[in-house]
Amino acid sequence: MSDNDVMTAARTKTPEPAAAPTDPAAGPAVPARMGLRERKKLKTRVAIRDATYRLIREQGYEATTVEQIAEAAEVSPSTVFRYFPTKEDIVLTDEYDPLLEVELRARPADEPIVESLRHVLRRAVRLGFTEEPEVSRLRTTLMVEVPAVRSRMLESMSVTGRMLCRVIAERTGRDADDLEVRTFSMALIGALTEASAYWAEHDHEDDLGDLVDRTLDMLSAGFRA
Amino acid sequence: MSDNDVMTAARTKTPEPAAAPTDPAAGPAVPARMGLRERKKLKTRVAIRDATYRLIREQGYEATTVEQIAEAAEVSPSTVFRYFPTKEDIVLTDEYDPLLEVELRARPADEPIVESLRHVLRRAVRLGFTEEPEVSRLRTTLMVEVPAVRSRMLESMSVTGRMLCRVIAERTGRDADDLEVRTFSMALIGALTEASAYWAEHDHEDDLGDLVDRTLDMLSAGFRA
DNA sequence: CACCTTTTGACAGTTACTCTCATTTCATGG
DNA sequence: CCATGAAATGAGAGTAACTGTCAAAAGGTG
């Protein structure tokens, strides 16, 4: 998911260096590292994000201006906007949709999509948790408390929804733009996002993995009421 | 729904005058109209909205500034913001959640909620359509094309979701804050919103009522894939 | 008509975000 | 090691969506 809900909980990493071209013939034995340029860019990105998280924790979201963030990250405001299109994106942007898509495709094609999601999300929750539980919590809290952040998060849902459409379409042979495929996908996303909101609203007391499980159970059992 | 998706399609009316207190003992035979003050407020509200729709149709959403809207509606920018908290709200705000809630509660309590929604939404779509088809289309188009509007619309989904939770909770005896109730509701909302998006993206060629039907069919048939 | 309340407009200020341009910083081939 | 080109940065000006304040105007009431 591009950032929202459940995946929101998991991770915050920066994108992989995109496999540096390990030229076998030419270069030295050195693992063909990223150029200094790229390394610096990554550092800047991380610096901005870390500064943002810190400031928000200290003084809240609205009270934290981009100018402050820039100062804390030791860059100019211009640069902040070059790295992140909006303030909300600093908090939310991650690049997990592609990863999630890969993992979903790796599951057996005849497995019900709900079960595929169950496996993949469980793993994501576990990983995100052992790594940076605080970030998961901060994010979901902001999602519940700050309208702008919630909006941006909901926005990202539709991106993830498209991805889900593609996967489902491929499995079922239907079109990714099929009405049923699309509404089905968004129903899943909507439910899972709500599970994350529930988690945050209940002060993260439950185990997110369990909430996801229960949500998927509900979905696969079919709606009642 | 506070504004989003399917309900987006339906209506745009202004809120009912809130049943003027027809004091049977006191006042004159006059139907106890709204005071001049209230009538003026309504007129201003309508003027702002109409001006906004017109300007957006003429020059697009982003190109239309609040200042222009104010001028066209013959009020000051301050007043515009007094009536609508954000620019997106001018386009989106309606007050149909309460109405929808009433109609849902009017359905037999033992009817599956999906069927209740089917009846209520079908009627809403029909009404909204005979009345102001253009507004329905403009809205859904903006929802698909303008990120800010889409965000605001998604935002309103959660409000509608809460309402749905209350209705479902009452019918089933569960708590409105129950995880399953909440995720179930948001799955419904997510699916229906996506149906509206589908409608707009396909240039409103399909019949919205049919799309809603198919979506609800899919939901009640249970997920597959 | 006088008095009080609500609504309005004028205005100043904040902040997110955009654009442009000059400067600096890295990469690369000679 | 340096010259040249490309990319990243910073500075600064500008826009537009809001927010808050205060005084003037309009509506309601005795």
Summarize the structure in words.
The structure is a homodimer of 225-residue chains. Chain A is mainly alpha-helical. Chain A has a single domain, classed as Tetracycline Repressor, domain 2 (Orthogonal Bundle), CATH 1.10.357. Chain A has 11 helices and no strands. In chain A, helix 6 runs parallel beside helix 9 (147-172), helix 8 (133-145) crosses helix 9 (147-172) and helix 9 crosses helix 10. The first copy, chain A, is globular. Chain A starts with a helix and ends with a helix. Residues 9-32 of chain A have low confidence and may be disordered. Chain A binds a DNA duplex (30 and 30 nucleotides) through residues 35-37, 40-41, 44, 65-67, 75-79, 81-82, 85-87.
Q: Which superfamily, in CATH terms, is the homologous superfamily of chain A?
A: Tetracycline Repressor, domain 2
At CATH level 3, the topology of chain A is: Tetracycline Repressor, domain 2
| Multimer state | homodimer
The unreliable regions of chain A are 9-32
Q: First CA to last CA of chain A: what distance?
A: 29 Å
Helical percentage of chain A? 55-70%
Short structural summary:
The structure is a homodimer of 225-residue chains. By secondary structure, chain A is mainly α. Helices cover 69% and strands 0% of the residues of chain A.
